[in-house]
Design goal:
The protein has a 7-stranded parallel sheet, with helices on both faces. Helix 1 crosses helix 8 (about 220-230). The longest helix is centred in the middle third of the chain and has 29 residues, at about 105-135. It has a single domain, classed as NAD(P)-binding Rossmann-like Domain (Rossmann fold, 3-Layer(aba) Sandwich), CATH 3.40.50. The chain has 8 helices and 7 strands; from the N terminus they run E-H-E-H-E-H-E-H-E-H-E-H-H-H-E. By secondary structure, the protein is of the alpha/beta class. The chain has helices at about 15-30, 40-50, 65-80, 105-135, 155-175, 195-200, 200-210, 220-230, and strands spanning about 10, 30-35, 55-60, 85-90, 135-140, 180-185, 240-245. It is globular. Helix 5 (about 155-175) links the parallel strand 5 and strand 6.
Length: about 250
């Protein structure tokens, strides 16, 4: 039995990495998927992949930092599939790798807008749509960085990702009576284009692998499976959680 049969899922930042893997897995598990990001070419290719495998996917090109886009992609989802049951707010950016004294205010705000404010804007329109659908599941893709581990030169990223956990906890209490669950998923180091941007040499990759108890990076597909758990009824009594899927990086001391 497919875990998401009859459900409709919206995934932001779906053009690559974790978001792409989530979209493909959700479609395989029976969901109608709406994929959104800024890059139309990549979204079109992904939608084609999903359809070739028998899934249902529509794409919306937009910018998660713009409120108009956040509203329109929900309207687009409702007009195409009639409901919104699942939302994965995954879009994100690393921002500059600099000491806090060298980060400009515009750089700081760009990271917070892309990672945290976009999650707020998404939820602002996703929650009312889910109320109309009788409930749902919202997942914020956060990070162990800023939650269980501090890394130098990542203050904006850390603050934005920690803020997503706080947002999830607040919304979980706010929305529980409407049948809406809200959780944060915190991946460890993952082999994605953004991950390779942060660790762009063999030495850097080896270091990141070494700080994980499992001594390796995650595959995006592994993170997608945990997102599926939070999206599906398998997590029906879970809300307000910060689910670490981090290969033991948060507890590793060796």
């Amino acid at each position: 039995m497919k875990l998401l049969s009859g459900k409709t899922a919206l995934i932001t930042g779906a053009s690559s990495g974790i978001g792409k893997s989530i979209a493909k897995l959700f479609a395989e598990q029976g969901a109608n998927v709406v994929i959104t990001a800024r890059r139309e070419k990549e979204l079109s290719y992904l939608a084609g992949e999903i359809r070739e495998l028998g899934g249902r996917a529509n794409l919306y090109v937009g910018d998660v930092t713009e409120e108009k886009s956040a509203q329109q992609v929900v309207d687009f989802t409702l007009s195409n599939f009639g409901a919104l049951d699942i939302a994965v707010n995954n879009a994100g950016t690393l921002g500059p790798s600099l000491p806090v004294g060298d980060i400009s205010l515009s750089e700081w705000l760009q990271v917070l807008n892309t990672n945290l404010s976009s999650a707020f804007l998404g939820a602002k329109y996703q929650v009312p749509a889910m109320r109309e659908s009788g409930g749902g599941s919202i997942v914020f893709i956060s990070s162990f960085v800023g939650y269980t581990v501090g890394l130098p030169n990542m203050s904006a990223y850390s603050a934005s990702k920690a803020g997503m956990v706080g947002l999830a906890k607040a919304l979980a209490t706010e929305c529980a009576q409407d049948g809406i669950r809200v959780n944060a998923l915190l991946p460890g180091g993952t082999d994605t284009p953004m991950g390779r941007e942060a660790s762009n040499t063999p030495e850097a990759i080896a270091f990141v692998e070494s700080i994980h108890a499992m001594k390796r990076l995650a595959k995006p597909e592994e993170i997608a499976k945990s997102a599926l758990y939070l999206a599906s009824d398998n997590s029906s009594f879970s809300t307000g959680t910060a689910l670490l899927v981090d290969g033991g990086v948060s507890i590793n001391k060796t």
